[in-house]
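Checked the freezer inventory, then went back to the computational side. Two predictions to log before the end of the day. The first one is the construct we discussed on Monday; recording sequence and tokens without edits.
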Amino acid sequence: MGEIYFDNSSTTMVCREAASRIMDMLTNNYGNPSSLHTKGFKAEQEQNSARNEIASFLNVYPEEIYFTSGGTESNNLAIFGAAHAMRKRGNHIVTTAIEHPSVLNVMKQLEKEGFIVTYLKPDSSGKIYPEQIFKAVNPRTILVSMMYVNNEVGSILPIEAVSSAISAARSPALFHVDAVQAFGKLPINPKKLKIDLMSISSHKIHGPKGVGALYIRKGVHIVPRTYGGGQEKDIRPGTEAVPMIVGFGAAVKALPSFDIELKEMKKLNAYCRQKLGEIEDIKINSPEDALPYIINFSAGDVRAETMLHFLSSKEIYVSSGSACSKGKASYVLTSMGLTKQRIASSLRISFSRFNNLEDVDVFIDTLKDGLIEITKRPI
């Protein structure tokens, strides 16, 4: 039996298309895109081609795409940049209690600087509702930052309601979306949704680690976090990681159509949920209408780390919550009001287009074996 990788929300295997382009850029087209000679010009052309690919995928202008080192930097740049640029117009920010740490930890720092942050709490299935947003936004709100898809339970947040809430409150707020888990999996139209800033990452869609992007709508001004040689129009200066950027573009180009992919993921998700539901003591924590790529569940009274290591010993790779939490109790599940035991036994499986129904069968059989071996009782 080969390995079964069910931790795609943490990172994905780099696809062949991206790996091939990265190797070419590392060994042949290795010029600095800021250099004025031919090799530099060729590197710049390749970088611009990747920018165009990503912009076309999002139906935005290429000049609205700024390359970063990944989702964490994009989130930091967007939130700090927007808050400091808008400070003269208010000091209130709206976000949720289930954001990624690269959002929540920025919010903590902004609170130390005098900003007031409202954290919208989820219900027991991890969902946030439009009425919560309308209630929270006020005329002093300068920023609303909300993820599109939660990375632990897969709940889809109502980002389509944000621009209406901002308008209804007559707020000057900018709207930031952490789309790291949604990009490439759900259709996103920043223009239609009136998104001002949006973070995306390469390594969640079978591209390389170390590269992401921030969409900044034309006309939106944010304060940069670093200063240097003028790259990325001074928003994110420093020599660009061109091989990774080109790999990012190749991964985007290789993405299958949403319709085909979502259909397959829904089939995989439904089959896995059915099989999990047949096991006594298993409780599914993800809502029914979650992104089908993610299922979070609790395995009775078996600690998550114990089951994770059992599965890993069989070359089946899952996650105990977010990879960024380093094994700590999930604040997402805690905010959902789940019991300590249910949180302590929670695991997340996350699919990609390289998984299939046979993988699910092997995973379920091995999970059952683990429950029997660890608990010393039949299931």
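The second is the one RB wanted added to the comparison set:
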Amino acid sequence: MAKEEMLEFDGTVTEVLPDGNFRVKLDNDHVILAYAAGKMRKNRIRTIEGDRVIVEMSPYDLERGRISFRHKSEGPTPPSAQRRPNFRRR
């Protein structure tokens, strides 16, 4: 039996909730609850308020979804903290 196809929608993150959840307003004016996909967590892709995202939803539950992609913003990115190298100095 084949896996059910996921529905994809574009939207904008309107609120960052605790525990990795997000409130997303879709382009069709529906507001849903979404979480970040595992690959986004693994690669530490940060999602903040106002980001444009692609949300995958199951046809069985149209109130929840999974954020699978974050579009790159046109504006300048905020400066990130200085990262330490992964090796020890002697």
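For RB: The chain is about 5% helix and 45% strand. The longest strand covers residues 7-17. Let me know if you want it refolded.
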